[in-house]
Amino acid sequence: MRSLPLFHRIAGQPVIVLGEGEAAAPKARLVERAGGLVVTNLQRGIDEGARLAFVAHEDEARCEADALRLRGAGLLVNVVDKPDWCDFTTPSLLERDPVLIAVGTSGASAGLAKHLRLRLEALLPPSLGRLAQGLSEARGALRKAFPDSAERRRALDAALGEGGALDPLDSGSADRLGEWLAAGGDAAAPTMHEFTVASDDPDDLTLRQARLLGMADVVVADPQVSEEVLVRARADAMRLMLPHEGEMPEGLIVIVRRA
Description:
- This protein is of the alpha/beta class.
- It has ten helices and ten strands.
- It starts with 13 loop residues before the first strand and ends with a strand.
- The relative contact order is 0.08.
């Protein structure tokens, strides 16, 4: 079952948590950590305008009845340990405030999500949050240094890429942000790359091909290239089809052909 990952801002907002004991308590803590207001009464939560609800009764029939009532009132509902009854699932969270990484499996295996998150914990330095905050505060300076949005994106791609001045996996990158900005950044020149894929399976992409797709401003694809491969590109990248006639847009252009 596929899911659309979203981050809900619930600070100061009511969130319904129904149930008792070990099943409900973690959901209440999750809501409180995000700044939400836990409401344990179904009708009061509906009346106060809650948009999300967790149902964690021990009795299955009661879970189903409350879930139906909440859904009928327009709320999105999570029924603990019942993924088929859920409108949304809760991922395993890795926090480097303000960076928040959510690992989910659409309810398939909470254990797998947890262990993936633990592996990522070991990779991401504690300074990652400071880097994110610094980049947020530097938005004005970045716009001044790179007025064109595509040029600004290429500069950040170059700096944040592996081995770049602001490599997020480098614990010292947060301390180099001011120096990088003072030097005027380093925008990569518009370039064009071309490669051929041998199958419709995105897992067959090389690391370089996946990286180029993920960074591309423009993707020009052979009609035979599968959507499963093309979805590895940024959602806001411009898509063109081969053969393309006329002038190419500026930016990082990736041409993908099918063998």
